[in-house]
Amino acid sequence: MLAQQFQVNTNNVTVNGDESISTYQYHTQHVETTADGKVVIVPECKEYQFKTNNKVPRTGVMIVGLGGNNGTTLTAGVLANKLKLQWESKRGPETANYYGSLTQCATTYLGDDLNGKQVVAPFNALLPMVNPNDLVIGGWDISKANLYDATVRARVHEPTMYHQIEEQLKAIHPLPAVFDLSFVAPNQETRADNVLKGTKREVLDQVREQIRNFKKENNLEQVIILWSANTERYCEVTPGVHDTAANLLKAIDEGHPEISPSIIYAVASVLEGVPYINGSPQNTFVKGFIELAVQHHVPIMGDDFKTGQTKFKTVISDFLISSGLKLTAVASYNHLGNNDGLNLSFESCFRSKQISKASVIDDMVRLNPILYQEGEHPDHIVVIKYVPSVGDSKRALDEYDSDIFCGGKNIISVHNTCEDSLLAAPLMLDLVVLMELFTRVQIKSDGMKDFDSMHQVYSVLSFLLKAPQVPPGTPVINSLFQQRACLENILRACRGLQPLNHMHLEYKLPQ
Amino acid sequence: MLAQQFQVNTNNVTVNGDESISTYQYHTQHVETTADGKVVIVPECKEYQFKTNNKVPRTGVMIVGLGGNNGTTLTAGVLANKLKLQWESKRGPETANYYGSLTQCATTYLGDDLNGKQVVAPFNALLPMVNPNDLVIGGWDISKANLYDATVRARVHEPTMYHQIEEQLKAIHPLPAVFDLSFVAPNQETRADNVLKGTKREVLDQVREQIRNFKKENNLEQVIILWSANTERYCEVTPGVHDTAANLLKAIDEGHPEISPSIIYAVASVLEGVPYINGSPQNTFVKGFIELAVQHHVPIMGDDFKTGQTKFKTVISDFLISSGLKLTAVASYNHLGNNDGLNLSFESCFRSKQISKASVIDDMVRLNPILYQEGEHPDHIVVIKYVPSVGDSKRALDEYDSDIFCGGKNIISVHNTCEDSLLAAPLMLDLVVLMELFTRVQIKSDGMKDFDSMHQVYSVLSFLLKAPQVPPGTPVINSLFQQRACLENILRACRGLQPLNHMHLEYKLPQ
Amino acid sequence: MLAQQFQVNTNNVTVNGDESISTYQYHTQHVETTADGKVVIVPECKEYQFKTNNKVPRTGVMIVGLGGNNGTTLTAGVLANKLKLQWESKRGPETANYYGSLTQCATTYLGDDLNGKQVVAPFNALLPMVNPNDLVIGGWDISKANLYDATVRARVHEPTMYHQIEEQLKAIHPLPAVFDLSFVAPNQETRADNVLKGTKREVLDQVREQIRNFKKENNLEQVIILWSANTERYCEVTPGVHDTAANLLKAIDEGHPEISPSIIYAVASVLEGVPYINGSPQNTFVKGFIELAVQHHVPIMGDDFKTGQTKFKTVISDFLISSGLKLTAVASYNHLGNNDGLNLSFESCFRSKQISKASVIDDMVRLNPILYQEGEHPDHIVVIKYVPSVGDSKRALDEYDSDIFCGGKNIISVHNTCEDSLLAAPLMLDLVVLMELFTRVQIKSDGMKDFDSMHQVYSVLSFLLKAPQVPPGTPVINSLFQQRACLENILRACRGLQPLNHMHLEYKLPQ
Amino acid sequence: MLAQQFQVNTNNVTVNGDESISTYQYHTQHVETTADGKVVIVPECKEYQFKTNNKVPRTGVMIVGLGGNNGTTLTAGVLANKLKLQWESKRGPETANYYGSLTQCATTYLGDDLNGKQVVAPFNALLPMVNPNDLVIGGWDISKANLYDATVRARVHEPTMYHQIEEQLKAIHPLPAVFDLSFVAPNQETRADNVLKGTKREVLDQVREQIRNFKKENNLEQVIILWSANTERYCEVTPGVHDTAANLLKAIDEGHPEISPSIIYAVASVLEGVPYINGSPQNTFVKGFIELAVQHHVPIMGDDFKTGQTKFKTVISDFLISSGLKLTAVASYNHLGNNDGLNLSFESCFRSKQISKASVIDDMVRLNPILYQEGEHPDHIVVIKYVPSVGDSKRALDEYDSDIFCGGKNIISVHNTCEDSLLAAPLMLDLVVLMELFTRVQIKSDGMKDFDSMHQVYSVLSFLLKAPQVPPGTPVINSLFQQRACLENILRACRGLQPLNHMHLEYKLPQ
Hints:
4 copies of one chain form a homotetramer.
Chain A: E1 7-8, E2 13-16, E3 19-33, E4 39-53, E5 59-64, H1 69-82, E6 86-89, E7 92-95, H2 102-105, E8 107-113, E9 118-122, E10 136-140, H3 147-154, H4 159-162, H5 166-170, H6 200-217, E11 222-227, H7 245-253, H8 261-271, E12 276-278, H9 287-295, E13 300-302, H10 309-322, E14 326-336, H11 339-344, H12 347-358, H13 362-366, E15 379-386, E16 393-403, E17 409-419, H14 420-439, E18 441-445, E19 452-453, H15 480-494
Helix pairs in contact in A: 1-3, 1-14, 6-8, 7-9
């Protein structure tokens, strides 16, 4: 059964106007080692409170790279959903949908009804979330093509779909964008006809003004900025430049060459109090930037949308290792022919990508010291190639090798044909929707005297990101199912519900 | 960090000699619908108690099909581990291990230490479990080949390994077995030179005696019986025969033709008070048999070891659907060349297998009514073929097709080369180890006046089975990660630990 | 260099009006065994003459199953080419083409020019062939949908393409068709609203009249009939019914139940002097039918278009075995969701298909008695499944296993995503074009007193067919490259050119 | 039927002692363009004579890289065959064989016998060839490990096999080898404990002496040298160094740094009159070297053994393009874990490999100007990665994308698991066997006054090489089937047999 809405019958939640406060017993544990070497688990139960503002604000999203494949796919897709479009394709009639979106198309288990039937709700019924159809969409692009022309160029949606929204798409013009050829592939220069001029500082100020204008013109209560532009090369992290918030701002003032365009957007975003999401793998979130975000109380999250091969990889690796099989090699090959691929054909941009893709199995390996000795890990290679003729149809070829019982071998080979941007767009929407939601959630633990936002690095969104950022000093979790559980259980906590434990004890009793 | 052992610092567990009792607050919820159609979740917290006997008994396992590929692989593999064997292979030196075993090679997360480092323990440190090296192994086979000859015939282990244990293996002779050609493929007859004679009733009595003898001769405190023989065709479930415990016993007395060999083993097992596991897909667990097991308080579990393709499938399907992608087709092709494949080349045996493999995605689909309308489900086909030349090296070719955002398609194609029996053997050991363990665990919920075993259908072991049996009237869960969470959280509960919630709230606070 | 046309400078060809006669020295050899067991090869050189009528007639094609996926794909595709259509698709602009057609898109090597550059010509420049754009297309279908509606139903071409030819397609109405539910899957009945009525004899007469009318109305000089309808089950070959031409005609008169619809079409075709091609695997070409075709001097050819997996298989198997590798297993799995798949989900229809696909590697195996002992052959399985959601996008998953040097193994796994009808249509056109061409070629060997057609079973077209028919008593060749060489060399012979020997001796001399 | 031996009943062959002379009518044609632009094919028939010395000499092979995986696999494999070894493996009993060898395990079609049965012969029955079992094997390695230790290190053969020939293998010690770290990966240095000392000239002289000694000590009539060592980086071709034979010798005298070890071996080989085969992709065969080989009348051939992925690729590409399908992309990914992989992980060595693999489809593309405009070609990428854990089990993942009829797409994805050295060894033997054979074949065409060897670049062996060398100014053929036809037809010519034309005209006549 699907419950579109639900109430929770609990005394732990109090409602006051738009606000609700949930008082929550959080069960956890820590581990101590005694003097004689014994390991002792110390269970703890701490009280937390979650304060949620249930009023969904009028929200906009500003995409860096609006005219790119992801940007156009998202924009046209949202319009198609809003207008409930239908269109013809080679495969028959199609209807707009949000397939691939956790918030819009996945469900969450609520419990069994009195007949023992399982009841679920849409994921977005857990707490009030913005409807993607209501998002105001804008942003920047280094190419001045309007969104219709950019959609045609992208070769992602069906012509029979986008012809129906030609007028609306033509009306959207990307704002002039920050551009610095030293951070992207030389081949990107030909696209760059819509570029902000001036010193780094002047450019930063212009971006801030663009954000303010977008908010004002569209009468928005909240804006989220989403980097979906080209993967930049890593900026060279430099003491005195990237290490503190103050140095970072000073370096911008001084036009330091290792201040990348993405840092300028991210800083502008924070200074305008607008949450910022990094959908590419480059190291925008240098130490000084995170400090700046914390200082300004502005949430940020990254890096790199977790869409296809990597998402799959975290699932398979988790499955194998958590079954006690010794994964010995992961070889991941990709090719694609869109502009992302073209840019990644440039070695230093690819390097950023490679780094973000490479570490995703590290935590699973580290957490099984039975299979892996200290320092031992599976061979792991990642290759991305530019193959123009496949366009946006990304191909991933993976091989997973494992050692099994007593000398046996297991070889899993996977070929994945996917449309890169059609996987990314719903995930970008999830990031916007959930990022906005969590700006309305405050937390108060035992030791805190007042409610506060969660740490500005919103690691609760790890499910959606390849190389999830975490607050300094905290462990990274790459297991997709654990990431999902984390998100689901925190949303449940806001509603006064205990985490899902999957135990179903009631069905295990003698009858 | 790996903790080989750990203690729990809690007042909720009391220890009394070998017994410990954990008092546990079980959080769950049910769903009600109000008169005006509103869905209300009602959280509940019930107290449960778990009583665990921590003394591991001297345990034996009797395998039906001891001389088959699974049986020999397990037996030789356990010997190799016990003797810490090393051997040469084409790929270099190999060492005995239990890779692929959840209990022996997977870890469980305990908590973070005071430096924020994650601490894990071997899964089998959660509660005292029998060490596979200590199992006494015996059983039945329709072929009288000793275990050495059977190991050579199986072509699974390396000759350089089994030559080292030739003597030990030669000393093991399978007991004469129940055989009824009408339940397996005609091609099995040539193997059948070690068969019990007599009426069904006489055969049942002989099996019971074999069990008693095995226990006595080996001085065992506990025995587990594991069906790992040929997949039988479904017995034709007949009112008056299979519907009640009494009728079932009567039908055996009368020699009814639809009493399959597996039913005879299972009944003998229950009548001897010995837990029974069905590792093949046939319908041994007819209604009358379950009634019998409940009456005699003997735990049972099945059906069909979840090793390769199906395990993978539940992971991939779960991943896709829980990400909001609409899985539209699953095509699963297999071929193998061992005796299992030969037997499955017989249509009616294959039918049993097909049924057990077919339903594994049903619950995931049913629980997402956003993607799937009532009655709608992905196309799903399962094919198994006998290809002698590949031997025990099973090949699985799968395709997963999904509808993605706005008309997009995703095609995942998987080729899996695996050694069938080398995946199965550690899983069989897990079943034995965990089955034995749970016979030492008793439960007492709010409404019960005394401790009792869990329901005799041990659904807590679902993780290990393709078509997990559940107590009558309870939902089947096929999601591998949920099945693992269930098992892990129940074991934690016995130790006084709350379920893992993956929330890591302490790392989400402002710093 | 591409030569669109070429002349041959030779005295061996004489031209007389539209006719040319080539005198040709055919080198071959036979093998004898001497009394003392020695094998002796006896080279022979025989003179052949080929008489070609170079005037291309106005040609029509009548497709049985015109409204099916192949029929509509071909019809709309030819129209698109004729009108030089362009259209938009998701992947960008598309242009009509004949990709996949040997005659239209492949080249043939002519020789090197005086600078040592290789010169090629289009395959269809070898002899005058009908241009597919000039074909008049008609035929039968059990569904009365006009070709536009049928094209929409097929879901093969882009809507943006077929909308441009809506009018032309709507004007094409399939003729009422022969239908006998006992020969196809029961699920086909719902489509059957356009069916000829009457006894088998009456139906035969109506078909003959339809052929005559088609020819007359379209003012055609030649017609080719192409069976592209559902795979029928094998008719049960019966003495006195299918064994002689006379019996076959008598059985039709008597309405014998084992006279299939395809036999009726084929007999009608022959009686009208119209060449007949069987594009499905069923046994239309029973002995009596071949006798009838020979009696009436009407060319026929079949069975089963060789498009995807099987074509690939003959290439891979040929490659492996001719490299000295021992192919040990071929496992071929397919699924598709078009009406062909639906019909093949019926066991007895599938059986026909399976037979045609199964024998394709037999000749290669038999011709390597070093690798394969007498009677030994690779394991070979073929599975076809109906998976509605994939539509016309056929998926083939194949595995090829080989034994290599000294105990090594090679496993090749292939996943092929293809559009079934888009591969078939150009091949159907090739069959029509080449069938028509060879009706204009006559042959005269040493022993013949006058020119005559080749044997009516046109085995020269084997390249295009999965289970190529051959004249009684002659060997079947499945090697794709040998089949292509056969066709190419015979066409060359008609032009007075010796076969390609690939020796390039001139480049191997000392310089 | 298999004929182990055969005679040819012809007057075109005369025998004189060990020599036979075949007089052969070679049919070919060239293409001219007339003044008015017409293309004219001019057939030609030239007389050639082939003189074959039918006495097989006592032959040795010296392998550069004897202790590497290829070298040890070949050596142990030949011993196993010679001794008719049998051994046990995981998969059952194994027997020595030459699977994968064209000369030993492939057949050639002779003709039909009088009953219409096809008769074949082993490929090596076409002309007298050395039996691999009779080869004396020796060579160089930079590691001094004896062949037994090297075989163990290689992890290719089964221990149960090589233990049987431990003594024989231990007796083989590689000669000290030429080593220059600047040409291979730095990681190779650790292996290098068996290295020739001195200037390049001194080293050259030592190698020449080693060759003479090998010949003398083993009483050999013929020696073939085979480079099977690490892929070197390309030497930087320099005017005045690599351009003429004289300069090359001078550069060696002067110790020029761009004289690679492989050039030293090749020059030594030529100066000793010993044929040289280059099994790796580097540019050993610089212009000056080819001149030297021609001057000294010493046959040479290369480059790069065509074993796995590339061989497959030439077959698939040929198949697709010659069927009229437009291949648009080929993505080839490989990984392996042997020392070849380790060396190739060094960028400049990989570059050599990449070049040799990249051009293999160029000729097929160029020869179809219908599908490909001038300058257009498929996207083609080649990636090789080092993944230690897979060892010698090389994995190739390929994707072939094609445009098909009217906008359709075909995607073929291939996963190939293979043992690298087990594919290479039989092919190396073929090269030795055929190279030796062709040194006994002389040719005389119309214009020549006396018999002479073929051009020293033995392009007739192209079938076995990835980037086949050809005499200057002659076209490269990569089509595997054409390469095979070339070889087969030249061998037939030596026996007085016309080329195979696959026409089977006798079966196409009216009956």
